[in-house]
């Protein structure tokens, strides 16, 4: 599910999970395990996170949400929060190599990274970024909003949330969802070069700077509103909306 490759001082984590690298409990658990190992690895100065195929990650596996019931949803939401925090608070540089679609939870996962490089594709091969949660019928927890707000100005976050618009790489660059665009064939090397550059900064200096930049992430921990968000993900009305969305966009599970 997560392929790990070391080259010099940079570790590359590649999501390889189904056609679109959909986020489920098992993928998050494996991702968390790798992050914990890399945090302690003295020979790793920086990390690159990327996807496989045409997707960085198309977001939460909604089929698993429907099938898993309240206990799965609660465990999944906790695991997702833990992974986002581990990336956002990781003491070493984390660069996202956005190889394709980064949608909903996949977009938030990219925003948890320190720097984002996106492939500039063409036609059907062009990746999209966005947060169509309201179109799906589910709310975002507070941490997701904080991470989006760290990348994109508030008016843009509001517009993206209310319209559910999926942005082209050029639009993602203009709004701040990504920091840089490159040709697809150069993505891996460019992300690795950026990670190496950041990894040359003295580790304690980088850690303290990142801690300051991310200082607001835990302000909403235990927020009563997040408990309402969790309840909404398990409600019959939300599941009905998810089914309608899946039927409209996918037709059937593939």
User: How would you state the average pLDDT, rounded?
Assistant: 93
Largest sheet: 6 strands, mixed
The CATH level-2 architecture is identified as Alpha-Beta Complex
Instruction: Give the fraction of residues assigned to helices.
Output: 40-55%
Radius of gyration: 17 Å
- At CATH level 3, the topology is 2-enoyl-CoA Hydratase, Chain A, domain 1
CATH class: Alpha Beta
- What would the principal axes of the Cα set say about the shape? globular
The CATH superfamily turns out to be 2-enoyl-CoA Hydratase, Chain A, domain 1
Based on secondary structure, the structural category is alpha/beta
Q: Tell me how many strands there are.
A: 9
Topology overview:
Elements: E1 2-7, E2 10-15, H1 25-40, E3 46-50, E4 55-57, H2 62-88, E5 94-98, E6 101-103, H3 105-111, E7 115-119, E8 129-130, H4 133-136, H5 142-151, H6 154-163, H7 169-175, E9 180-182, H8 187-199, H9 203-213, H10 224-234, H11 236-249
Helix pairs in contact: 1-2, 2-10, 3-5
Describe the structure.
The protein is of the alpha/beta class and 254 residues long. The protein has a single domain (2-186, 200-205), classed as 2-enoyl-CoA Hydratase, Chain A, domain 1, CATH 3.90.226.10. The chain is 51% helix and 15% strand. It is built from 11 helices and 9 strands. The chain has helices spanning 25-40, 62-88, 105-111, 133-136, 142-151, 154-163, 169-175, 187-199, 203-213, 224-234, 236-249, and strands spanning 2-7, 10-15, 46-50, 55-57, 94-98, 101-103, 115-119, 129-130, 180-182. The strands form 2 sheets. Strands 1-2-3-5-7-9 form a 6-stranded mixed β-sheet, sandwiched between helices. Strands 4-6-8 form a 3-stranded parallel β-sheet. A hairpin with a 2-residue loop joins β1 (2-7) and β2 (10-15). α2 runs antiparallel to α10 (224-234) and α3 (105-111) packs across α5 (142-151). The longest helix is centred in the first third of the chain and has 27 residues, at 62-88. It is globular.
